[in-house]
Amino acid sequence: MSTDVAGTCPACGSQSLFLGSGGHVTCRIDKCPNPCAADEILADREIEHIVVLHHDPDEGFTIRHPLRERIADALLDCDLHSFLSQREGPPARPGRYRVYRVPTGSGWSWEVLS
C-alpha cells in the first residue's frame, strides 16, 4: 500500500502523487510525461541562483532561480535580473556561476562552477 503525498505533479498537473519505493515521490498517472518530476525537483540540492553568462554578448545571460523564490512569488521581487540587465557588460567572464546575496545584502557574490 502506498502513501499519498499532498501536492500537484509538476509534469502533468494532477493531484496523484504518492510515496513510492525508497521514499521517492512519484506520480501514479499512467500517461504522465515524467512521473519522477517531483522527486527530481526535491533531489536538487542547489539553493542559490545559477547564472550562465553566454559567450555571445547578444545572448546575454540566463538565470535559474532557487526554488524557495517560488514561495509567495518572491521570484517576482528578485532583483538579480535587474542588476545584470543594467550593467554595460557582464560582471564576470562567460561561464556558469552560483550567485548569492552577500550577507550584508549590499551586493552579489559569484562562485565559478564552470
Explain the overall architecture:
By secondary structure, this protein is of the alpha+beta class. The chain folds into two domains: 3-43, no CATH class; 49-112, no CATH class. It contains two helices and seven strands. The longest helix is centred in the middle third of the chain and has 7 residues, at 37-43. The mean pLDDT is 91.
Briefly characterize the structure.
With 114 residues, the chain is an alpha+beta fold.
Residue share in helices?
A: 10-25%
Number of helices: 2
| Structural class category | alpha+beta
Spatial strand arrangement across the major sheet: 5-4-6-7
Q: So what's the overall shape?
A: elongated
Quickly count the domains.
2
Q: Which residue ranges are poorly predicted, with pLDDT under 50 across at least 5 consecutive positions?
A: none
The sequence of SSEs as H and E is EEEHEEHEE
Largest sheet: 4 strands, antiparallel
Overall number of strands: 7
Distance between the ends = 44 Å
List keywords for this structure.
114 residues, 2 domains, four-stranded antiparallel sheet
Write the SSE topology.
Layout: E1 3-4, E2 17-19, E3 25-27, H1 37-43, E4 49-53, E5 61-64, H2 80-85, E6 95-101, E7 108-112
Antiparallel strand pairs: 1-2, 2-3, 4-5, 4-6, 6-7
